[in-house]
Design brief:
InterPro entries: Cyt_c-like_dom, Cyt_c-like_dom_sf, Cyt_C_IC, Cytochrome_c-type_DH, Membr-bd_ADH_cyt_c. By secondary structure, this protein is mainly α. It has 19 helices and 8 strands. It has 3 domains: about 140 residues; about 100 residues, Cytochrome Bc1 Complex, Chain D, domain 2; about 110 residues, Cytochrome Bc1 Complex, Chain D, domain 2.
């Protein structure tokens, strides 16, 4: 054999050995599985795992985020491969059991804050790929208090009853009567994407109201809007391409992703393959039928509308424009916007009180920001301007009361007035 070629091979072996000797132990274990790790990373992105398992200003996937639920705050766990505080001691079977059955390796039941009622539909091959990716991360030592719920919700054994009532385990089964694209979209939306966890209202026990699937929910005092194909409250007026554009860029039809959806777009959908986004859009556009007809708008002569109009002209029109059309890619459109016409006005009230920021993506790197007006507008004034926005330029929705604003203000700022 040519001595030069042998020399090259020896140097290559020495280089690889040096790389492996300096690699983290978890990455070393999977160093021969780069394709699987890459696939797992894409799947973890589709599942938006990083959003829940990362504390503010914390290390990605190291846990510690307080998820607010109707029953109290649940701290998300560390899912880096740290042996003591993460999932370093877990096997692939342990990980699959958590996703598919909602159980820890020791059999302890998990709360559905981990959306295992959705993740149960994920195939075992995809679960293994996600686990391979998580095992490739740098281990982070971060102990998280996992017992933050008050009594009696801290009794995990009660989840046996909850699961019996509301949880049906089982992998996704494609519909043979539908296209491959539709079924791919269904798998992503109903499984990894767990879209219904936010966009479906919950019953008193924290389970989805399945008879109102995708008709809108509440997340951390924001409204997760209706995403059925209903033309009044949902996506009925959106094309498939517009849904894809929104998921990819955070902007479409004058709507800018904000609130919890900002994080979903930034961390997940903007990083997904276009084909997967189109499949999700195709699936969503076939979900739901015509909903309730639009209500009669509050008359322009109503005193609340007159007060609201004056506040809008003084405070809002400079950005959103007097006609409610906004400024493309900078300030969102309010005329015909779902945030304005949802049955639950929580998002509109929330953003007026606290302000907000739109998603920043590779294609739209500027993240427009709305300032807070809660410091200078009273509950009555916010109720008036929100009522005006919900019933102008062709919009029609129930008026908002000062008491409703006061309740949301107390939740989002910790102050009653």
């Amino acid at each position: 054999m040519n001595k030069t070629r042998v020399g090259h091979r020896l140097r290559l072996r020495h280089l690889l050995a040096a790389i492996l000797l300096t690699a983290p132990s978890a990455a070393l274990a999977d160093s021969d599985n780069y394709v699987e790790i890459g696939r797992g990373k894409a799947l973890a992105t589709a599942g938006d795992c990083v959003a829940c398992h990362t504390a503010p200003n914390g290390t990605p996937f190291a846990g510690g985020l307080a998820l607010q639920t109707p029953f109290g705050a649940i701290m998300t766990p560390n899912i880096t491969p740290d042996n003591a505080t993460g999932i370093g001691s877990w096997s692939a079977d342990d990980f699959a059991r958590a996703l598919h059955e909602g159980r820890r390796p020791n059999g302890t039941r998990l709360y559905p804050a981990l959306p295992y009622p959705y993740y149960t539909r994920v195939t075992r091959a995809d679960a293994d790929a996600i686990f391979a990716y998580l095992r490739s991360l740098e281990p982070v030592s971060n102990s998280v208090n996992r017992s933050t719920l008050p009594f009696p919700f801290n009794i995990r054994a009660s989840m046996a009853v909850w699961n019996a009532l509301f949880f049906t385990p089982g992998e996704f089964k494609p519909d043979p009567a539908k296209s491959d694209e539709y079924n791919r979209g269904a798998y992503l939306v109903e499984g990894l994407g767990h879209c219904g966890a936010c966009h479906t209202p919950l019953n008193a026990l924290g389970a989805n109201k399945n008879d109102r699937h995708f008709e809108g929910g509440v997340v951390d005092h924001w409204t997760a809007p209706n995403i059925t194909n209903d033309s009044q409250a949902g996506l009925g007026k959106w094309s498939v391409d517009e849904v894809v554009q929104y998921l990819k860029t955070g902007q479409a039809r004058g709507v800018l992703a904000s609130g919890p959806m900002k994080d979903v777009v930034e961390n997940s959908t903007s990083r997904m393959a276009d084909a997967d986004l189109k499949a999700m859009a195709v699936y969503l556009k076939e979900r739901g039928a015509a909903g309730s007809p639009a209500p009669t708008p509050v008359a322009a002569s109503d005193s609340r509308m007159k007060v609201g109009e004056a506040i809008f002209v003084d405070t809002c029109a400079a950005c959103h424009v007097r006609s409610g059309e906004g400024i493309p890619r900078v300030f969102p459109k309010l005329a015909g916007a779902t945030i304005a016409t949802q049955d639950d006005p929580a998002s509109l009230i929330h953003v007026v009180i606290t302000g907000g920021q739109a998603a920043a993506t590779a294609t739209h790197p500027t993240a427009p920001t709305m300032p807070s007006f809660g410091f200078r507008l009273s509950d009555e004034q916010i109720a008036a301007v929100v009522t005006y926005v919900r019933n102008s330029w062709g919009n029609a929705a129930a008026p908002v009361t000062a008491d409703a604003v006061k309740a949301i203000r107390a939740k989002v700022t910790g102050a009653a007035d």
